[in-house]
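Contributing new records

If you add data, match the layout below exactly. Sequence lines come first and carry their own label; structure lines follow with theirs. Keep one chain per record. Anything else will be rejected by the validation script.
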Amino acid sequence: MIASIYQFFVDQLGPMGPLMVIGGLGLLLILLTLPIMLKKAPEPFDRIKSQRDSYNAPVKDKQGLRMGGKGGHSDKLQKFSTFLEPQNAEDMSAARLKLHRAGYRSKNAVQLFHFAQLVFGIGFLLLGVVYTLITQASADVPTHIVVLSTIGPGAAGYYLPQYWVQRRMQQRQEEIVSGFPDALDMMLVCVEAGQSLDQSIMRIAKESRAGYPALADEFDTVAQEVKAGKERVMVLKDMSERVGIADVASFVTTLVQSATFGTSIAEALRVYSAEMRDKRVMRAEEKANKLPTKLTLGTMLFTVPPLMIILIGPSVHGISKTLGGF
């Protein structure tokens, strides 16, 4: 009986048919048991705490209007937090810092990131299985092509959110680096006009919103944390760590040293803003100097072959006609 079933699948799906059927059944069982495994029973103390919070919370929280409040996406993903976020504190902090640098600051950003990896990985894997079944039904496909067309889309779907976050982080850092010299110039003008450092930071956050929203978000976060009563030195150091840019780290070090030794903040800003403008000019010159090297390949591909055809083509044609006469 087993031999006949095996032969049936081989006749219908090809040599890899039984293996594909077993893999499909295993994937189906995983999908069926996954909700049961992910279902997390509430702890008694957590249940008591949630009842107390719901009793003491205002009506706005009970209606789920606040971000991350009751009824939001965080409560739905919180049930699966054991599987959707790192359990190690260091890994959790590193993942949250990376998402912060990419601009994702919500409370459940880490859970959404891992949930996206899970969904895209399984979804692309299923698409790969469907594509493999279709191609196997129409023609005989080698085993390595079957494995690559099945596992490849799943791996691509799993790493797609990571690539997206990395790309967003690079774009955000480039935007902050581009707008940082202008922000320093504006801060210098505000400080020399008589405003305090906190007022100048708030002014920069407001004025740079149109051109550099990422930089405006960072300065606005600094202003709000200082308003909340957090120490300014710690707020600036947190900004340096949150952004992850060397220029911002040097700026924070300059401000901290100026506040520690009692030197003039305006003088420190004047020197540092001039340095940042020079660095921006040097970055532009560096990009301009890289252009000839980058254009060399295009020149070799699209200019040299037509030039060689124009120069050598008539000679080759004449030689071929001469040889043809003999």
